[in-house]
């Protein structure tokens, strides 16, 4: 299945593709079966029609959201990033439509997303059983990564102390100025004393002349 890049962009922007979201309580055990049971019928129907599609299951694990999406596209980017597609193709290019698995969660990795290519939509039905096994295996690994991520120690936010140090710097300068002022005051007092001494000496000399 191929599609002109501009036609692909138009369908996504106009939201004329098949799409739906399903909410699912946290699977117990936390495995792929229950999630794929929600997605498989919709994806099979979309592939049968050779239609663009995006179907998701929303659940959670350890209090964090987990979103599993099976989506058709011409580049390994979720459809929400449709504005970036023209960075990879010319608008009049004919591009192959693929099926991608996206798992989004703050627990899965640093980027909060795992992307796996399943294969082309055109060849999916030829080996549908094998393709669904591949999807199940990949999703199982992704869910295991979510579990491992939930057990990792949470990184505490680093406190930024730099602003406090900058505020302290002006105080040191102010103290230096005060010391300088104190020295100047002392110097003035000393000068005054010296001047007074000279005046006293002059008076004594005047007294001697009067005798």
Salient structural properties:
five-stranded mixed beta sheet, single chain, alpha+beta, disordered C terminus, 22% strand, 211 residues
Assembly of the depicted chains: single chain
Give the termini distance in whole angstroms: 132 Å
Shape: globular
Helix content: 40-55%
Largest sheet, spatial ordering of strands: 2-3-4-6-7
Quote the beta fraction.
15-25%
Rg, alpha carbons = 39 Å
Low-pLDDT runs of 5+ residues are: 174-211
- Can you count the beta strands? 7
Largest sheet: 5 strands, mixed
Order of helices and strands: EHEHEEEEEHHH
Provide the residue-averaged pLDDT. 82
Structural category is alpha+beta
> So how many helices?
5
Structure description:
The structure is a single chain. With 211 residues, the chain is α+β, with helices and mostly antiparallel strands. Helices cover 49% and strands 22% of the residues. The protein has five helices and seven strands. It has helices at residues 5-14, 32-48, 121-124, 128-151, 162-210; strands spanning 2-4, 18-23, 53-61, 64-73, 94-96, 98-104, 113-120. It has a five-stranded mixed sheet with strand order 2-3-4-6-7. A hairpin with a 2-residue loop joins strand 3 and strand 4 (64-73). Helix 2 packs antiparallel against helix 4 (128-151). The radius of gyration is 39 Å and the shape is globular.
């Amino acid at each position: 299945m191929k599609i002109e890049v501009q036609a692909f962009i138009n369908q996504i922007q106009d939201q004329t593709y098949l799409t739906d979201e399903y909410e699912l309580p946290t699977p117990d055990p936390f495995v792929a079966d229950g999630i794929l049971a929600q997605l498989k019928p919709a994806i099979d129907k979309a592939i049968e029609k050779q239609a663009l599609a995006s179907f998701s299951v929303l659940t959670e694990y350890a209090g964090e959201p987990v979103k599993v999406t099976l989506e058709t596209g011409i580049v390994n980017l979720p459809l929400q990033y449709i504005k970036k597609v023209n960075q990879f193709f010319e608008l009049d290019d004919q591009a192959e439509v693929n099926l991608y698995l996206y798992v989004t969660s703050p627990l899965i990795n640093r980027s909060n997303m795992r992307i796996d290519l399943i294969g082309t939509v055109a060849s999916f039905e030829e080996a549908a059983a094998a393709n669904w096994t591949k999807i199940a295996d990949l999703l199982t690994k992704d869910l295991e990564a979510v579990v491992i991520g939930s057990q990792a120690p949470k990184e505490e936010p680093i406190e930024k102390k730099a602003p406090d140090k900058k505020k302290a710097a002006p105080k040191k300068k102010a103290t230096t100025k005060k010391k300088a002022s104190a020295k100047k005051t002392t110097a003035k007092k000393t000068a005054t004393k010296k001047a007074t001494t000279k005046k006293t000496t002059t008076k004594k000399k005047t007294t001697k002349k009067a005798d």
